[in-house]
Model the fold of this input.
Amino acid sequence: MQPTISIPQHWAYPRFALDQRTKQGMILGLYYYPNGTELAEQFDEGWRYVLMPNKNSDEISYLQEDQIQSLSPQELFTQITAEIKFYQQQIAILQQQLVAITGGSTNG
Done:
């Protein structure tokens, strides 16, 4: 069964999804300031997003939808390709370590 998030019908649908890559970073969370609340009166109604600029940072930022830009298909491709290359290098290092501790035997 897939996890489901229900959004009330009278709320606008969010433009961005959890775990989506954007120019400002990865979407970690989102929350909504509904019309008629103190927060909406003070900061405007709408979605707010929690983003992590990069995986190696402990920083997070809080942005409104209009402050976030989607990545172009080429930018997304470049980011994902770089991440794949990084993990392939990590796998190669781990395989070398296995060979070193097993003396070349790969069946443990």
Observations:
- Residues 73-102 form the longest helix (30 residues).
- The longest strand covers residues 25-33.
- The beta strands are 21-22, 25-33, 46-52, 61-64.
